[in-house]
Specification:
Elements (H helix, E strand, L loop, with lengths): L3 H4 L3 H6 L3 E5 L4 H13 L4 E6 L7 H8 L6 H4 L9 E5 L11 H10 L2 E4 L10 H19 L7 E5 L10 E2 L12 H11 L1 H6 L1 H5 L5 H16 L5 E6 L1 E3 L16 H10 L4 E3 L8 E3 H21 L6 E5 L9 H12 L14 E3 L2 H25 L6 H20 L3 E2 L2 H9 L2 H6 L9 H16 L7 H38 L1
Parallel strand pairs: 1-2, 1-4, 2-3, 4-5, 5-7, 6-13, 7-11, 8-10, 9-12
Length: 504
């Protein structure tokens, strides 16, 4: 190997040497970063990746195309042909037994040493039947297959810090008492009722959980607790996953989920109002920190946990460190501060982001800054003979924002004892390679790289377009001032006219 990292002989690298790893969700955001790090920093023998054919493209061709992403440029300097170390397993988490053929299943059972189950639907408004199939049934099928694996040394199930969001002060333990049903009974109910009838029971089953995602991720944890207690398994609970911090490149991102859409929408000038409290914690974590911690979790599960087996699977949570927390106010500050340094040339208005701390205030501000401008823009487009779009866009934005409202209404805190202990147990060399120390993360630098990466990988804008963006920013700053001055002046005139009519 040509990379100095691979010449090191660390504990985690020794664990993965010559191992055969199976990963679900390998074509997703976290999965891509994980595969890149595993191939680049360890001498792993083979990675089996569960993937499905899509739009006429085979699973293998999809994986080969993914490896052409800029994320993997550093990897190609270490392994000139990384596909030699990857075997795609055609399957689908929406199908029974993951849709894996008997031949592939046999190979996995015979060969796999380590499993990382990352596959999940992260859509908050996913129909209950779909969310249950992907997040619960697929997890159960994965556990059943893992129990047959002859060489299994470690299994990492990726959950979420918000899987048990009905508890605002979450410890690294199971909260199955809030479910009211077991994974077995839920899957039974789904099979007996069928899709339509099962979906009709969503409100009754989900109960106090805010959406089907959190509910089914919590039920999946119950399956791990019940079915996985006879194998070397652990649960990894990351917070809200954002762009890479530094490895292999700063600011890499491939989606606009969650807070990413907020930052991009603000930079584009379309999102101007958000329901949030500035002092409330924001549980963000870089995706490369998550990949690093997953590898460390696998190593500890295969060594320490087996020697000293706990009563139930160990849980590891990764959110901002208590000495380096991030709140929404700081998030907004960095998003605006760094956004002005690299504005988008195709923005439609001056980037501003207002926080509304009450629901009434939020509705009022969205009326002023979203709805009315949306109708005005669409009216102009209609006069020009062009298709309208802004009112539809704002309806989508408000729907997405409504899904986040629950998480912005409470100040969530998380225990990270197992995470801290894991970090303390690692060697100095492993800490350098597999860093997930959130206490040292420079949030200002992180959001600078995040915005830079969003500009490059999402907006597809060249750095050379920054001067053009600065020019547009100056124009819209002036227009924004004029519009606000006219609006305030108009409101004052209207108020004076009413008072004059009433009292004079």
């Amino acid at each position: 190997m040509q990379n100095n990292v691979l010449e090191m002989d660390t504990k985690i690298q020794n664990f993965f040497r010559n191992k055969k790893v199976f990963i679900t969700g390998g074509t997703g955001f976290l999965g891509k970063v994980f595969i890149e790090k595993l191939l680049r920093t360890t001498d792993v023998e083979r990675i089996y990746v569960l993937a499905r054919a899509k739009r006429g493209t085979t699973a293998t061709d999809r994986m080969a195309q993914i490896l052409k992403d800029p994320l993997f440029e550093k990897l190609h300097t270490v392994r000139s042909d990384p596909m030699k170390y990857i075997k795609t397993i055609e399957g689908d988490c929406t199908l029974p037994k993951l849709g894996i053929s008997p031949e592939d299943r046999k190979e996995l059972i015979e060969q796999v040493d380590v499993v990382f189950h990352c596959a999940a639907t992260v859509r908050f408004n996913e129909p209950l039947s779909n969310a249950t199939q992907i997040n619960v049934a697929a997890t159960r099928d994965m556990l059943d297959m893992a129990k047959e694996m002859k060489n299994l040394k470690s299994f990492v199930h990726v959950s979420s810090a918000f899987a048990n969001c009905v508890v605002t002060d979450a410890e690294e333990k199971f909260y199955t008492e809030h479910l009211g049903i077991t994974s077995d009974k839920l899957l039974d109910l789904k099979d007996k009722l069928g899709k339509i009838a099962f979906d009709a029971m969503e409100k009754e089953l989900v109960g106090k959980y805010p959406n089907t995602y959190c509910y089914t991720k919590s039920v999946a944890e119950e399956a791990v607790q019940k079915v996985g207690n006879s194998i070397p398994i652990c649960i990894f609970r990351p917070g809200i996953i954002l762009a890479t911090s530094e490895d292999p490149i700063p600011g890499w991102i491939d989606n606009l989920y969650g807070p990413n859409s907020i930052v991009y929408g603000c930079a584009y000038g379309v999102l101007r109002v958000m329901y949030a409290r500035p002092n409330q914690n924001a549980a963000y974590v870089p995706v490369d920190y998550c990949a690093n911690m997953m590898m460390a979790c696998a190593w500890e599960t295969a060594t320490t946990v087996i020697q000293n087996p706990p009563k139930e699977p160990r849980i590891y949570t990764l959110v901002p460190h208590k000495t380096n927390e991030l709140d929404w106010g700081t998030f907004k500050h960095y998003a605006v501060e760094h956004g002005f340094k690299m504005p988008l040339p195709n923005m439609i208005w001056y980037p501003i982001l207002l926080f509304a701390e009450t629901y009434i205030g939020y509705k009022l501000l969205t009326l002023i800054y979203h709805t009315l401008p949306g109708y005005l823009i669409d009216f102009v487009l209609l006069l020009m003979g062009k298709p309208t779009r802004m009112t539809k866009t704002y309806k989508k934005i408000h729907t997405q924002c409504s899904m986040l409202r629950y998480f912005l209404a409470f100040d969530f805190t998380f225990d990270m004892t197992n995470c801290y202990n894991l970090w303390d147990s690692m060697s100095a060399e492993d800490k350098k390679i597999y860093n997930f120390d959130m206490s040292k993360l420079d949030w200002s630098r992180y959001f600078y790289d995040d915005l830079k990466g969003m500009r490059r990988f999402i907006a597809k804008e060249d750095p050379k377009s920054i001067p053009q963006g600065m020019k547009m920013l100056r124009i819209f700053r002036t227009l924004n001032f004029i519009v606000h001055a006219l609006f305030i002046g108009g409101m004052l005139w209207l108020t004076w006219s009413l008072l004059k009519y009433i009292f004079l």
